[in-house]
Write a structure and sequence with these properties.
Bound molecules: biotin
Strand order of the largest sheet: 1-2-3-4-8-7-6-5
Strand content: 25-35%
Oligomer: single chain
Shape: globular
Number of strands: 13
Amino acid sequence: MSYQLQSNTFSGLFVGQKIITLPSVDSTNDFMKEQLSNSTPFPEGTVIMAERQTAGRGQPGNKWYADPGANLTFSIYLEPRFLKPSEQFWLNIGICSGLCAALQKTVSESIIIKWPNDILFDRNKISGILIENVLQGDKLKHSVVGIGLNVNQTTFAEDLGRVTSIKQILHQTYSKEKLLYEICHSIGRAYDQLRTGSWKELKKFYLENLFAANQSQDFWLKGKKVSGTIRGVDTSGQLLVEFNGQVEGFGFKEVAFIL
Ligand code: BTN
């Protein structure tokens, strides 16, 4: 496959110090991983974005759809070697917090995080994150952080469920470049907090902006509809839910929110 690469930069930023724009690619995560496995070196903080993805991937088993040119679909290259494999969820906390903070600043204070790594506005999904880590020994060697954000798309397939875009929220077209700058800036800041050990602050932000925290929420659990109260997340990434006074931890796909 031949790619027409357009390389750019957000000067002064760590995340976004190099930006490669592809007109069309299968998936920016897959493209970045292929380049890495061919030993193409990237500076940490490199962003690869695509105007169009032909096989965008969501969380395992899901696809990610975006109208060509309308939305942001990109991947960030990071080397979080300061994290152990058992600490992977901290990267998720940092990325979610950085993305959420950028969207609160630019779009709406009502943007929140839905465990483990969706971003919502008014119970509608506006952004999804797919982090793929490569481990080496007892460290994270590198991570490909894929982000899909609905910016200027206004119609969505019905089977996608509750989704929205920035244009649907603000009723105006939004600059993808300005948004990418704010996101890179904010994720860079969160990543720096991770690197320097300010994990408590990041977790505080994540929990303060977590959808349905400390509220009664309906879930599908083992094929049954149940009501519980979200009490937080543990460091392995499990969602902590209280049922009848007992707190239990659940992994991704073990519980599904009923929105
Ligand atoms: C999800 O919510 O299921 C995660 C969606 C992640 C989508 C982004 S778009 C850019 C990057 N490339 C991909 O193929 N997926 C991620």
